[in-house]
Amino acid sequence: MKRQELAHILRAACDIAGDQEVLVLGSQSILGAFDEDDLPPAATASLEADIAFLDDPKRIKADEVEGAIGEMSPFHQTNGFYAEGVHVETAVYLPHGWRDRLISWRLTSSDPATPRFLEPHDLAVSKLGAARRKDLECVDALITARLVDVETLGERCALLGDEHAVVRGRINAFLASYLT
């Protein structure tokens, strides 16, 4: 996915939900910090953007987005990419303080969206916590491209809640392979 495509999804999602405070979770959140030309292919391979709203306690807005521009929708069939409406709590493995580190960019002065993106290290920790093959490959590519720092990842991993002690251990083991 490219920034321009993500911007198209964000505009549509904000129009559908009537809310400009949108949060991009998952892989495409990396586009908040880097242009697609600066990213390794593994970081932009997904055709979906996980879209949440900062004020959506009952997940109504996320469901509206999912129904209108989600997978297999006319939007998806027309554009080749789509939004997955998710709730903020979907991102289980975010380090404490992640909301204070959100990144934002303005699409254009007339756009309805005020997008927020996970800071790249917070995103990487979240992906390492999920530990799916595609997530591990994405983080490996970001580390190899020097777009995230292993020491900072370790610091962010330490900010995971106590309920994630096992996940912290798994992440630290993954990171250790880069420090040898």
UniProtKB/TrEMBL annotation:
It holds the Pfam family DUF6036. Residues 17-157 form the DUF6036 domain. InterPro entries: DUF6036. It comes from the Bacteria. This is DUF6036 domain-containing protein.
